Amino acid sequence: MKVPIDKKSIQSLITWEELNERLNDEIRWVTTSSTVPSIHLISPEGDKVDPQYFSRDNKPHKMRIQELWDQGFTLVLGTVDNLTPRLSQFTGFIEHKFQRAVFTNLYLNSGKTDSKSFQAHVDKTDILICQIMGQTIWGVAGQPEQKLDSGDSLFIQKGILHEARPVQGIPRISLSLAITNHKQPLVDRFSVKLT
Ligand SMILES: [Fe+2]
Q1: How many domains does the chain have?
Q2: How far is the CA of 162 from the centre of ligand 1 (A)?
Q3: pTM exceeding the 0.85 threshold for the entire prediction
């Protein structure tokens, strides 16, 4: 189902300019943590990439990531709660609304190839997808295929098979919020500072 959240609040969560700034900051991005900002890559076929493939000295390597991005790999940024004040505010709003802790992931794709963001799968938690920019076509078991436009959101119940397909030629940014079963926030958004 599509969720009635104001389109403009979703569209303004983060811009490409802000993302470029944050990625270029002297931030210690990591590849292994789920509690501090982290970077992962997914191949155009939808498979998660071994972090060693884009790391040097166990740290994400900017030039290598850029190369893979240009080849159509999807960039997944985890625990992005503090990336912008609006992301922090929005994550807090969703946690308050559901009374559950929420994990955040941003999915970025250049749209240069017809890349998948992941293979069809089920999740152990409910998921709220927010299309910040561009478009994504979603297949959710038991529902007709649906296209999310910039500002749209989609709620996927836990245990329901789903897959995403980008619209070729259109760069996109999607926010995925995993609504956990924990009542207390697992990440202190105001202590994980990016600067
Ligand atoms: Fe999922």
Answers
A1: 1
A2: 7
A3: yes
